[in-house]
Design goal:
Its cofactor is Mg(2+); Mn(2+). Homodimer, forms a heterotetramer with a Cas2 homodimer. InterPro entries: Cas1 (IPR050646), CRISPR-assoc_Cas1 (IPR002729), CRISPR-assoc_Cas1_C (IPR042206), CRISPR-assoc_Cas1_DVULG (IPR019856), CRISPR-assoc_Cas1_N (IPR042211). By secondary structure, the protein is an alpha/beta fold. The protein folds into 2 domains: 75 residues, Ribosomal Protein L15, Chain: K, domain 2; 244 residues, Up-down Bundle (Four Helix Bundle (Hemerythrin (Met), subunit A)), CATH 1.20.120. It has a 4-stranded mixed beta sheet with strand order 1-5-7-8, sandwiched between helices. Helix 6 packs antiparallel against helix 8. The chain is globular.
Length: 342
C-alpha cells in the first residue's frame, strides 16, 4: 500500500487543468505548480478555484478524487469515478447495519478507541506539564474518560452509547485548556466544543483539521469498497458520510494533538483568525497553508500498529482500519478492533 499525496489548492482564483499526464496550477496565467497525476490520491480545492473539465474526466478515470471545500474548509462537493468494490461486501455492510447487536458492538469499539486515545493525550500532558494545577486537571480528565470506558459494556443500545460518548467528550474538551502553554491561553481558550460555527480559535482550528481528517477517512472507506453513507455509530441521514465519521472517531485525538502542537509552537497565532458577525471565528488565509503543511507532514510520521506489529505512516492508518472493518463485515474477523496509540 502506497501513501500518495493529497494536493491542496488554496490560492484564490487558481486555475487547475490537465497538461498531458500532469496537473498544472496557474494563477493569473502564470504556472505555479506541476504535479504528475500518478503521485496523487486526491485534489482538494478551497474556495474560488477553477478546475478544467478535461482534468475532471482524467481524475475520475484515474481514481483520483476531487473535493471542493469552501474557503474555510467546509465540505461542498466530491467528484469520483465509478463506484468500486465488491458488491457483496456492500450488501453485507447494509445488512449488518440493520443488525442491532452487530451494529452496537462496532459502534462501542469505535467509541472505545476514541476515548482510549483521547485519554492518552491527557495522560501524556499530565506527565509533561510542570504546573501542578494543570497536572491535576489533566489527571482528573483522564480518570473521567477511564470511567466512561468502564461504562461502555453496560450501554445496551445506540442512544445510551452516544450519551456516554457525548458526556466523555464534554469532560475531555473541558481539560484541553490545560494543554495550552500558559503564554498562549489569553488568546487560545475554549469553553466546550462548538461546531457550526466555531466560537473560538481552538474550535476553529479543530473544525478545520477535522474536515481534512474526515476527507481522508471517507477516501479510505471508499477505497476499501465500503459504502461511506452507512455507518454503525453515527445516525444515517441524507448527505452524511456516517461510516467515514465512525472511522474518524479513533483518529480525532491525533488531530487534537496536531492543533495543540500548532498553538504551543507558535506556528498559529491569535492574528491568524477573523471573527464574523454572529460570533463565528474562522481561520484566515496563509494560516490555512501552515495547517495543511503540518497535516501533510503528520501523515508521513510512522506509528506502530498493534495488530500488524509494524510501523506505518499515519496517513495509511485509515486505510488499514477500513480493511479491518471490511474483514469483520465479511465474517473473517470476530470483531472490529480500533487503532490504539501506545
Amino acid at each position: 500500500m502506497q501513501l500518495l499525496n493529497t494536493l491542496y489548492v488554496t490560492t484564490p482564483e487558481s486555475y487547475v487543468h490537465l497538461d498531458n499526464e500532469t496537473l498544472r496550477v496557474e494563477v493569473e496565467k502564470e504556472t505555479r505548480l506541476r504535479v504528475p497525476l500518478h503521485h496523487l490520491s486526491a485534489v482538494v480545492c478551497f474556495g474560488h478555484v477553477s478546475v478544467s473539465l478535461p482534468l475532471m474526466h482524467k481524475l475520475a478515470d484515474s481514481g483520483i478524487s476531487l473535493v471542493l471545500l469552501d474557503t474555510h474548509g467546509r465540505f461542498k462537493a466530491r467528484l469520483e469515478g465509478p463506484v468500486s468494490g465488491n458488491v457483496l461486501l456492500r450488501q453485507a455492510q447494509h445488512r449488518l447495519a440493520g443488525d442491532a447487536s452487530f451494529a452496537l458492538n462496532v459502534a462501542r469499539n469505535c467509541v472505545a478507541g476514541k476515548l482510549r486515545n483521547c485519554r492518552q493525550v491527557l495522560l501524556r500532558g499530565a506527565r509533561e506539564t510542570k504546573a501542578p494545577e494543570d497536572a491535576a486537571i489533566l489527571t482528573r480528565g483522564a480518570a473521567d474518560l477511564a470511567a466512561a470506558l468502564r461504562a461502555l459494556p453496560a450501554a445496551g443500545d445506540a442512544d445510551t452509547l452516544r450519551g456516554v460518548e457525548g458526556e466523555a467528550a464534554r469532560q475531555y474538551f473541558a481539560a484541553l485548556n490545560a494543554l495550552i502553554r500558559p503564554s498562549a491561553r489569553e488568546h487560545f481558550r475554549m469553553d466546550g466544543r462548538s461546531r457550526r460555527p466555531p466560537r473560538d480559535r481552538i474550535n476553529a482550528l479543530l473544525s478545520f483539521v477535522y474536515s481534512l481528517l474526515m476527507n481522508d477517512c471517507r477516501s479510505a472507506v471508499e477505497a476499501c469498497g465500503l459504502d461511506p453513507q452507512i455507518g454503525f455509530l453515527h445516525v444515517v441521514r441524507p448527505g452524511r458520510a456516517a461510516l467515514a465519521l465512525d472511522l474518524m472517531e479513533e483518529f480525532r485525538a491525533f488531530a487534537d494533538r496536531l492543533v495543540l502542537s500548532l498553538i504551543n509552537r507558535g506556528q498559529i497565532g491569535a492574528g491568524d483568525f477573523v471573527e464574523r458577525e454572529g460570533g463565528a471565528v474562522l481561520l484566515e488565509g496563509d494560516a490555512r497553508k501552515t495547517v495543511l503543511v503540518a497535516y501533510q507532514e503528520r501523515k508521513q510520521e510512522s506509528l506502530s500498529h498493534p495488530l500488524l506489529s509494524e510501523a506505518l505512516p499515519f496517513g495509511l492508518l485509515p486505510h488499514v482500519q477500513g480493511r479491518l472493518l471490511a474483514r469483520t463485515l465479511r465474517g473473517d474477523a470476530a470483531e472490529y478492533l480500533p487503532f490504539l496509540v501506545r
